[in-house]
Structure formats: C-alpha cells, structure tokens
Amino acid sequence: LHYRTYEHWRENSVIPKEIAERLEALLLSAYAPYSNYPVSSIVVMESGEMIVGTNQENGAFPSGLCAERVAVLAAKAAHPNEAIQTVYIMTGESEREPAAPCGSCRQVLHETELRQIKPFELILLNKTDKALAFTGVQGLLPFSFTLPEWGDYSASKNATNGAFSLTDKPKGSILESVYEWFAPPVLYCST
Hints:
Elements: E1 4-7, H1 9-12, H2 17-26, E2 39-45, E3 50-54, H3 67-78, E4 84-91, H4 103-116, E5 121-125, E6 130-135, H5 174-182
Parallel strand pairs: 4-5
Antiparallel strand pairs: 1-6, 2-3, 2-4, 5-6
C-alpha cells in the first residue's frame, strides 16, 4: 500500500485553502441522521471544475450513498469524457485517522479510473490534523471485482462514442503500459 502522509495539513498548506474550507462547509449538508458521521467530497476535474458530494443516508441502510460516490458519479454524469484530477474526502471527525472509502466506493473509484485510463489523486483527510494521499486507487483495492464476461480490462477507446471498452487489451501502444498498470491481479480460490 503506497501513500503519502501529511501531518497537520492545515499548517502545511498541503490542501488548497479554498478546497479545505468548502469541504468543511459541505459537512453541514451531509444527511447522516443514523450514523452521525458526516462526510464531504470534492471531485476536481481536469478543467478545474469542482463537483461536490456529501453522504446521503437512508433508513433502508443499503440505499444510502457515501459522499465520494455521490461526487464521482455526478462528475462522470456531467462530464463523461473529462478526466478526474483529484478526489478529496473529508470526515467530520478530528480525533481519528482519516477514513478510507468503503468497499463499494473503492470499486466505483477503481472502475472510474479504468474508464479514464489515468490515475487520479485521492486525498483523505479529517477536519484538523492528518491527510493521506494516494496516486491512483489500485493500492486500496488490489483484488478488484471483475465479471468473467468483461474479459480483460482495456484502455481502448470505442470510436463510435468515445467510451472505453472493457473487452480487448490494447497492443503495441502507450495504452498497453497503462493497461498493465491498471490491470487488477486475479485471485483464484478453490473450495
């Protein structure tokens, strides 16, 4: 697991002040009546546009969404052909380590990275003290979920709609090395 740790991130100006202030303000709009654990997220697109999200809980617990999933899915819905540059996730606590994304969010982040063929920065922080920074999400999800019918992950672009295909492994190009970086390890288990 490769990441960078930033102690006292506010003092070191590691996180841009505008983003830190906005993340903190967004915590107030999180809907977390069941967990009392507000989380906010900001996705920064390559254009510099910021898309925000907060956790949105629901009494039917699996129906709620985490802040980073809200922000990432909204970003890709609004800008399907633009790459994400950075995803910031802030928890409302200051006493504990920054919280890592849940398994469902890790899978969404991982597949989003695969679609754009480019890793993004993932910054996890709590309100006052510590931040963790990852380049790419592969380290958070080394045995990512794949379906057999997907075949190999691919960075080949579909010429008709600009989307990325999950079928054919690219050959003989820079995309091949990108594929190798993103290709999830395969784990076989017998019972």
